[in-house]
Queue: 3 jobs
Job 1
Amino acid sequence: MISENMFDPAHYAKVRLPVLQAETLPSWCYTSEIFYRREVEHMFKRNWNFVGREDELPKPGDYVALDMFGEGIIILRDKSGQLRAFANTCRHRGTKLLQGRGQCPAIVCPYHSWTFALSGELVAAAGMERTEGFDRRRYSLIPIRLETWEGFVFINFDDDAPKLRAYLGNLPEFLGSHCLADMVCVRRNEYDLACNWKIYLENAMEEYHTPTVHKLSIGAQVTVREASTGAWDGMYMPTDHTIALLAEDLDSEFPHIPTLDAKAAHGMYFAVIYPMTFFAFTQDCCWWLQQFPQGAARTKVVIGSCFPRATVARPDFSERVKRYYRRWDKSLPEDNAISELQQAGLSSSLSKPGRLSFHEPVVRDIANWVLDRVLDERAHGHAD
Ligand code: FES
Ligand SMILES: [Fe+2]
């Protein structure tokens, strides 16, 4: 840990260089709670954060309660079918209202039964009749901005941030032929890991580790960088078959999405949508790795898997999809273990910055995306 101001740009001059000249981030960026709190306030809370799929909340009253960097959030579908996000805190004395996932016709506080409609309005507050000047209409749930793209749901704590579509830049152009709005999330798995969120994201966005870490599962991968505008970075990997199956299971491959354009039909995309979600879009499915940071050195990782509606409707879907799960359940623990090992090494006070390979341009760019938002001179928070 350094004793001087860790947000002084002078510490990071070498991280700012092009990838083949650059150094990695100093270890305190992965271990310091002070650095993490700056990321929360200047980065996570001012940008669009992926929270899940629309199809995970299909009916009015479906809700999920999430914890995002210490903020309790409710995402729900209201009676009119609209998705909404609220702070998970009662307007009476602040109690957390909902937990986990479920279905409710209205939100009833577990403490004194104040009752909120799915639209957020306070509709019942028994016992408040004598309270002077109490106007129920002024005690609705606190709304949070929510926007969607092709069924992917994002929230933003910053009322001044640009709209989601502007934030995503040209990403939708690359994925237009995947018909992502027509996908269904069929599984989510969670892992609680002893590592910083950036470690996990960097790992997901570099191929350098694949021949070593995944030598017994998915093996080496070779990618080319895509030219991105907006708050994402991506790679394209040429391949004629899905990479969501292990090589020995390719006979179980589902039909490819029929609308794919020529490039998408012969390859797949890896993308990070900043600040912290990794996506993989293959010819027959897509999946994401979502980080829920719990502090500097702890991260809940959620892997979600989506398939086209027509694939999910196949009579053999539930049997064949097990091969896909097998692939993720084999490769993910390999990434989990190496990420925790990297965190353990970076926690040494003797650890010093290293250098990067040509395989790791996005590792350099993730570091710089963070620095652009947290350092003293440049803290802003919006998409480039
Ligand atoms: S804290 Fe919610 S009703 Fe009292
Ligand atoms: Fe990996």
Note: The pocket of fe (ii) ion (ligand 2) is lined by residues 203, 209-210, 213-214, 335 (CB under 6 Å).
Job 2
Amino acid sequence: MAEVNLLARLPKSQRNIAKRTAAQTPETIAIARQYGEAYFDGPREVGYGGYRYDGRWIPVAEDIVRHFHLKPGDRVLDVGCAKGFLVRDLMDVCPGLEAFGLDISGYALAHCEPRVAGRLIRGSADRLPFPDKSFSAVLCINTIHNFERPDAVRAVREVERLAPGQGFIQVDSYRTPEQREIFLSWVLTAKFHDYPDGWVALFREAGFTGDWYWTILE
Ligand SMILES: C[S@@+](CC[C@H](N)C(=O)[O-])C[C@H]1O[C@@H](n2cnc3c(N)ncnc32)[C@H](O)[C@@H]1O
């Protein structure tokens, strides 16, 4: 169990915090939580503001393959895969790797990377429809904070169940009160969030033995 920044080489997104804060209403939050067209490809105020493949996950995929010593024939699952960009890049940087994705969004799956069509399934991270120990590695990036805490614990258990000791979870967090304020003025979908110590306590409660890192806005 260790803190490992596997997204270190992901380019930083542009964020207009003031504009998002002004748009944070119960209505925009409800729209974002539908994970539909508005969230992925609508205005920035309710989500990504256009979620298109641009290759930014390639260095991350390289670091994941290296970190987990993945090789052709190994199976890896990306939970909360959205349109499958990381699934595509994992297969590109490690030809022969069997990469799959799962997401709750019918919209994202219907508009997925054409190259990964057939490798993505619809489902919820707290009930993964796969047998125990069925993957060499399971990734869950920026997804588990979208649950209330009890369901987040179940989702972490699911990652551990499919790939004991070979999971990677990244979640929204903050190290200082100032970072927490910035986070609160940006967040739309997250239902549970905490300082790193609180998250680590949750991971331990779930019996998680994999690795983790934080998405922190600064
Ligand atoms: C912030 S996006 C992260 C996408 C991608 N992993 C990344 O880091 O760019 C959150 C993703 O989690 C998905 N999601 C939300 N709740 C989920 C759930 N209960 N089970 C599976 N996926 C979920 C959303 O549809 C969305 O694709």
Note: The chain is about 35% helix and 15% strand.
Job 3
Amino acid sequence: MSRHVVAKVGEIASGQRKIIDVGGRRVGVFHSNGEYFALLDRCPHQGASLCSGMLMSLVDSSEPGDYRISRKSEMLRCPWHGWEFDIRTGQSWCEPSKIRVKTYPVSVEPGADLVKGPYVATTYPVSIEDDYVLVEI
Ligand code: FES
């Protein structure tokens, strides 16, 4: 697995996504409340561009008339037939045990850690023996 720079922090607003071609795949990178998630942009149902679907919150209900809204912008609805997926896990909400969309690890790192520059000076071991400084080349 290789690593790819896909965006600068701040480029993807919270609740939004960026769809890109990376490593030969089309991938959606989502930003939700300071966290980032990446999914393959292909719905496991019939192949729609899943990552261009609508982002929604999770709605839980224990009984009719009682419901709770949570996890703002973490549920993704496929634009073709409305199947819903959790952007954290890729798990389908309609058939969680069987259907899942591929997810990829995402991290945020300082630019200096990613690009160290092309020029590196050659170094050699140096030691001191008695009154002499020695360099091993
Ligand atoms: S192609 Fe996504 S739900 Fe059918």
Note: The mean pLDDT is 91.
